[in-house]
Amino acid sequence: MARAGRSTRALLICALASLLLIALPSVAQAQTEPVSIVRSAVGDDDATVITAVRLPAERVGTVLDGGDFSVFMNGQPQAKTAALVPVDQLEVVLVLDTAEELGAGTLSAMRGAVVEFLLSLPYGAKVSIVTAGAQPEVVVPFTSAVDEAVAGVSRITANPGTAMYDAVAVAAQLPGVSSNSRRVVIALSGGSDTRSQQPLEVAADDLAATEAIFYGISLPTPPSAGTAAGALANVAGGESFVATTADQLVGLYDRVARDLTSLYELSVASGPPDPTEVTVVVDTPFIRATDTARIFGTQPAPPAADNNREDVAVDDGRREVPGSEVVPAVLSAAVAALGVALLFTAAVRRRRVAAAARAPEATEITVLDPPAPAPAQLSPANTARRARLATTTEVLRPADQRHGATTGTQVLTLRGSDCVTLGKVVADDARAGGGGLAMSRGRLPKPTPSLDFNEDGALVAVGSHGSFAVVVDGHFGFDAAAAALDVTAEWAHVLVDDPVKNPELALEALLAEAQDRIATQLASVEARRQDSRTAITLALMSAGRCHVATIGDTSALLLRGRQRLIRFPEDRRYLGPDPMPALQAVQKVRPGDRLVVASDGLRDFSSTEHIMNVVQANRSQPCVQTAKALVEAALLGGAGDNVTVACLDAVT
After folding, report:
1. Could you report the per-residue pLDDT of 470-501, keeping only the tens digit for each?
2. Which of 114, 352, 460, 469 is most exposed, with the fewest beta carbons within 10 Å of its own?
3. Given strand 263-268, what is the order of strands in its sheet?
4. Among 284, 304, 337, which residue terminates a domain?
5. At how many degrees (to 10) do helices 104-120 and 146-153 cross?
């Protein structure tokens, strides 16, 4: 019997599902420059330029060196050194405009985008949240615990007026966690500053004093108006963006999150007197790009150079706040015209595009080519094939026919019928450690009719010689998935009680057994269920290796820190009554590696990078906590599908 587990964090995050961004059917993304100067400053005898380098997806993780950069000041080349800013030195402060005049729709969009950003925050970075109400408040002090920061978002309430400049000053002056930290302030505002006690220039000076990197994101109301965040970026230096839709807001926060992993500090020992302009050139075989910016504090801000940089006059930014009935027009129209029904379809498209753009293929994977599809075989033929494989592996014998089975072996299962309430998360764990399960029907109903509310299932088994995980995802009913899950539950003890001599053949034999059981099951069901099929992924941890076999759109992701060791391409084949070859992979594992096996509901509503961040944030927690956090993240992503996750720690 599965146990329903709900921690305080789960309740908070599930509650935040109601704050999810309003997703428009067409995603308008801001153009992304490959290179951006995000801070430049001149000291008495040196200059520092912080540059964000946005690498192509296939090169994410590549570290550039000094030879890849050229720096020019006032057009003159400069000698320089270059170093990647370590992520664990970053102290990120989110400054949020909470003016009630913005309206409920805008504030909900802001909260949803902030949660998305927090879940994408690179591992090791510290984050704090400051609200810019009439009296700025530190809602979340610096923490590296993502769950604490997400919980802090739920405590944000609307307040009359905006004191953005005061709040930015608070963000700049927060005591640092370490002496070598690098402060990053990300301010979001929807209008002008109306309540600050100090002017714009003082806030800019506070940013300069701490050498903070500044990003300003604006949700102007009305769209033609300037905002306090834009005015700050214009005076203090840094990046400035405008978002007029919720999707653009998510995209901009995502862009900043990715910038945090690719910030380079370029140091110039000496340069021309009174430099006013700096140019950075990046020249590698895979990226050639240039950016030019004024040097902080040397001259008034020039007009915006492109559509992403806000055109805001350099003044104190104080104007009357628009009436409370004003919210971004596109957000309001989206709510009225599209409704909740379009939320999940836009979210699926956005997530799939983001995942494809940000998830390069793993390089350490050993993928075994699947055998050629066999002709359709009936049960006797499968029985003979299975017997041949069992003879080879010497492991596929029912548990009651084996000797010395470990009584402490734990086999946990979750079935779709265990979780049929939208928004609910059900979880179970191997109490001896090493494995965990979590499942949800989803946040929203499926976009297409289905025979069963929840067609997913999962299994985790932990024994003396290994661990085993299975996720099934039924199509056209749970029947095929249920049959496959029954088979794996019957054989799970066999795979983890004793060493397995040939794991690849053992998994192949198990799939043949499942296919045979599906054929028998479908022969006895009503006609409308006879088309039932299932995706299935099997993962066996044994003798220092992880062996995976998969058919369909369930998937496995083996993670070592932020490195992906096993990752499969999307597969649209499904297991039914006829033989179906599996994709297989094998990878050596080390202590600390963690395996995630999941239905497609996770991948469709969480990018690979997002999944990695959640796993890292829960690395010191039991596997069940990781599984629950991943399911909860998919719910926050607007999951319009069943979401199931099995998690295993490496067995070495």
Report:
1. 999 999 999 999 999 999 999 898 888 878 87
2. 352
3. 35-42, 47-53, 263-268, 81-84
4. 337
5. 180
Look at residue 221 in the predicted model and tell me its pLDDT: 63
CB of 119 within 8 A of CB of 610?
A: yes
- Residue labelled with tokens 């769209």: 223
Q: Please, what is the average pLDDT of the chain?
A: 77
Does 174 share its domain with 322? yes
R_g over Cα of the chain: 27
Residue 454's domain is classified under what CATH number?
Answer: 3.60.40.10
536 with 595, same domain: the answer is yes
Compute CA distances 606 → 58, 348, 457, 613, whole Å: 19, 9, 19, 10
Half-sphere exposure in the Cβ direction for 256 (13 Å, CA): 30
> Which of 651, 652, 638 is CA-nearest to residue 112?
638
Dist CA 374 CA 581 (whole Å): 8
pLDDT grade for 523, boundaries at 50, 70 and 90: very high
Mean pLDDT of 609-615: 87
Could you report the per-residue pLDDT of 42-72, keeping only the tens digit for each? 876 788 999 999 888 667 668 898 999 999 9
Q: How far is residue 598's CA from residue 584's CA, in Å, rounded to a whole number?
A: 16
SS3 label, residue 30 = coil
Phi, psi dihedral angles at 459 (to 5 degrees)? -145, 145
Distance CA 594, CA 606 (A): 18
